[in-house]
Design brief:
Elements: E1 7-13, E2 23-26, H1 37-52, E3 61-66, E4 70-75, E5 82-83, E6 93-98, E7 101-105, E8 116-117, E9 120-121, E10 125-127, E11 137-139, E12 142-149, E13 152-159, H2 163-166, E14 181-198, E15 204-217, E16 220-228, E17 234-239, H3 245-255
Parallel strand pairs: 4-5
Antiparallel strand pairs: 1-2, 1-14, 3-13, 4-6, 6-7, 7-10, 8-9, 8-11, 11-12, 12-13, 14-15, 15-16, 16-17
């Protein structure tokens, strides 16, 4: 993906996983899209459902608690700063936040044997956040990591037995429509620049923006700016013209 003459295959789906309004699926390399595009699309949908319903997938997310400076106790007991709604020990431990460091400290009665850090019995230690390879805490069916967002830290909690995962019955899609399978011209940024992207939790992250994907739909030229690495996946889009996602979706529905 180093010249404007290269093409990036976009499959624009008037087919979405409820409750999401609409989805754009990007295949970063033209070779990733075979002539049998419907098979590719159905395989992607199956993989999406598989990832969501995995024991550590997003359907297992049960908690996100922001850490306050100082001590943040956690466990099942109501007197914890972070109360875990799960059959775990009353007091699992304490997260001590000082500046840009989060340390795991034992509660008054010591760490319970059920609390593990990276698969080993818990001990007092400085925890790595999700900036790199995070420290993974487990207790019962819970998995916990510390996440770093801007100048704030939070505890992300997942439960492999979460009702959202256990009751998952698959995603719902519209039928594939070849009308919305288009080729996009890839226009690289030289050099790659950083795009500021607001998050749902009120923070802003920076992501490398390698270029623009430009295509025509219903007579309208549309540019999308993906974030990420071309060698991986381009998952986040910033719109580069006056069309909002809602307006584009209305146009798609009119064309279908």
């Amino acid at each position: 993906m180093t010249s404007t003459s290269q093409r990036m295959r976009l499959a624009i789906l008037a087919a979405v996983a409820l409750p999401v309004v609409a989805a754009l699926v990007v295949f970063p390399h033209a070779s990733a899209m075979t002539a049998d595009w419907q098979s590719d699309l159905l395989a992607w949908r199956a993989l999406r459902a598989q990832h969501l319903s995995a024991p550590d997938g997003w359907l297992t997310l049960v908690g996100l608690d922001w850490l306050q400076p100082g001590d943040n106790s956690f466990g099942a007991a109501p007197d914890n700063r972070i109360r875990l709604d799960s059959p775990v020990a009353a007091h699992l431990g304490v997260f001590n936040l000082r500046g840009d460091q989060v340390r795991l400290v034992a509660p008054a009665q010591g760490f319970p044997a059920t609390l593990l850090v990276d698969g080993r019995p818990a001990h007092a230690t400085t925890l790595a956040g999700d900036d790199g390879q995070p420290s993974v805490l487990t207790a019962g069916t819970l998995t916990m990591i510390v996440i770093h967002r801007g100048d704030r830290y939070a505890l992300r909690v997942k439960d492999s037995q979460a009702p959202t995962r256990l009751n998952f019955r698959g995603l719902h899609w519209y039928a594939p429509d070849p009308h919305f399978r288009v080729d996009a011209k890839w226009i690289p940024w030289v050099p790659v620049h950083q795009e500021k992207i607001p998050t749902i939790i009120g923070t802003t992250i920076e992501m490398p923006a390698p270029g623009l994907a430009e295509f025509t739909l219903g007579g309208q030229t549309i540019q999308l700016e993906p974030g990420g690495n071309c060698s991986d996946s381009l998952w986040q889009f910033a719109w580069k013209d006056e069309f909002s996602f809602r307006k584009l979706w209305k146009r798609i529905m009119k064309l279908s």
